[in-house]
Amino acid sequence: MAVTIRDVARRAHVSVATVSRALTSPELVRPETRTRVLAAATELGYQPNRAARGLITGKTGNIGIVVPDLDNPFFTGVLKAVQARAMQADYAVFVADSDEDPVAEAKLVHAMAKQVDGVVLCAPGLEDSQVYEVAGATSLVLLNRRLPGVPAALMDSAGGMHAVIDHLVALGHHRVAYLNGPRTSWSNQERRRGLMKAVAKHGVDLVDLGPFAPRYEGGLQAADLAVAADTTAIVAYNDIMALGVLARLRDRGISVPGDVSVTGFDDLTYASLCSPALTTVAMPVAQAGRTAVNLLLDWLDSDHTDVPQIVAETQLIVRGTTTPPKR
Amino acid sequence: MAVTIRDVARRAHVSVATVSRALTSPELVRPETRTRVLAAATELGYQPNRAARGLITGKTGNIGIVVPDLDNPFFTGVLKAVQARAMQADYAVFVADSDEDPVAEAKLVHAMAKQVDGVVLCAPGLEDSQVYEVAGATSLVLLNRRLPGVPAALMDSAGGMHAVIDHLVALGHHRVAYLNGPRTSWSNQERRRGLMKAVAKHGVDLVDLGPFAPRYEGGLQAADLAVAADTTAIVAYNDIMALGVLARLRDRGISVPGDVSVTGFDDLTYASLCSPALTTVAMPVAQAGRTAVNLLLDWLDSDHTDVPQIVAETQLIVRGTTTPPKR
DNA sequence: AGAAAAACCGTAAACGTTTTCGTGCGCGAG
DNA sequence: CTCGCGCACGAAAACGTTTACGGTTTTTCT
């Protein structure tokens, strides 16, 4: 049914080997025969069977990506970039969703391992040791998680959070609440790290609350604790929580940014659409996605002597939810 | 390096053929040897090479999905469900993003064709004829697009829009504006079809505006035209446009829902998070995603006599942006 | 011009499976 | 007792490629 390399060979009056060479390593055949082969191939609409090719080369031409949640715009932003860059490099992309379940994460990359040349693992919830374990099954690059010995595409969350505090103290805030996301999450640890550094530097009072579920509901819950702590600014772990905070504050008649300033993190689309628009920090998701596949591709033909870990810069986006404190 | 079927055969003291049989068609081997083979397989951690298997069976165990935009929560919702259902059926999922470009859509499914058993094509912008053309390249299931002869998972947008109008006239509105999305989009045509039917039924004045870009900016632009048309209700093509409308109206000091009611479509997360919360219609994306892969799987071993087209019900979600008109 | 080297291309093996075909065996029927 | 049949399994072909190897032609150097 399908057109095979043999058909092309017949039509071009050469052997199958020559066809293969003409297509994969053009410098090995005479230009004249190469064009003849190419002509035959396009005329027949020939497309190499990747399975057969993979069988012999050991390479599949596929990469995998496993994300914690496909409903999370943060990860789909990464996915979009990964897909685009991979396609550019003539790779196809397998996608899997772990549903925030660490053991599913491990299972998924193991399942993918035989079908791909490598996988990018996004913000895994796995223990370090388990990450190393799955890294044994295939070429792995991490996204938003740093681990010695494995390549990673990172975003400077710590720096972003530092910028948030810089911004707040510049406005005159001296007492701020931080609403933690999940304690075990690498992202939360990073953000908290940047926060602590900035807090120490400026000598501001920090009220450390949580952890909370990194969801709208978590924000609702956290808001009350934050106002009880009597701070002038509330720094949320991410945008969704911040939206919850805003909603709860509005319900309680507390004005933002009049009575209290609020910041988010991630710069999801709705951060700019709500009102007042949310001050937040933009994550370079697309850039990180691109570099993740670049790292993966480089890693595939490298001697693995150095393991690159590239961090992309975040950017503070000042909008309407932050102003100087009243008192 | 990797453990092959030959290793299993050696360890179980049988031939490779028997191993294959024991794993894929257990009834062909004696129970005793079967357990012996299974034991050997698990001890060695054997995983069949899907490429090799696919080479001979012609089936890949993969399905593909191509979507217009991975940044659009609507499609990632579908994707999430597709991925989950496929994984359940032991299929892996290729994903591709056409960036709203019809010719890219066609290219992508052609590229996928050789690597998958079938693909679900989401809301294609292709001409009918071109859809048929790509349907020739592989087994195709459409999502949110109806075309005679090709299986489809649909959502009852028309019904949803009808419900919107029913709701508005029940509130007492007699003159409403509809903000069109892209004219060529099947979704817009469906929504408009439901709209027209309801409008005719109730005898309401319809002001048909647009088309507009189905984005926030499109909403900003459309809002002014809608107020100029002096209607008491504005029905937007989708949620994002509705958000743009809300923002523009607020900027102009027009109160929602006091001065004018507004509705969206899709029920994206931020529809419930903005304030006032948006009245909209929820699309059964997850359900449609699931049925899409069900249809695909069924289609693969069917005689293709009947082509199923399953439509899932939408649901009107009444929230804060719709009230009776002032006058 | 002749030989050595290089360039080009064909033959065949290999990749890891599934599946067809054939073999040996036990067993029931005639 | 023999014939035939069905069952369990092994040998080998096949799937569509890539690539090592070797052979033939062309180029290059003296």
Structural notes for this entry:
Chains A, B: InterPro entries: HTH_LacI, LacI/GalR-like_sensor, Lambda_DNA-bd_dom_sf, Peripla_BP_I. Chains A, B: GO terms for molecular function: DNA binding. By secondary structure, chain A is α/β, with parallel strands linked by helices. In chain A, helix 1 crosses helix 2, helix 2 packs across helix 3 and helix 10 packs across helix 11. The longest helix of chain A has 17 residues. Chains A and B meet through helix 4, helix 5, strand 2, helix 11 and helix 12 of A and helix 4, helix 5, strand 2, helix 6 and helix 11 of B. The structure holds a DNA duplex (30 and 30 nucleotides).
Salient structural properties:
six-stranded parallel β-sheet; alpha/beta; homodimer; DNA-binding (chains A, B); 12 strands; LacI/GalR-like_sensor (chains A, B); HTH_LacI (chains A, B); 13 helices; 327 residues; DNA-binding; four-stranded parallel β-sheet; Peripla_BP_I (chains A, B); DNA binding (chains A, B)
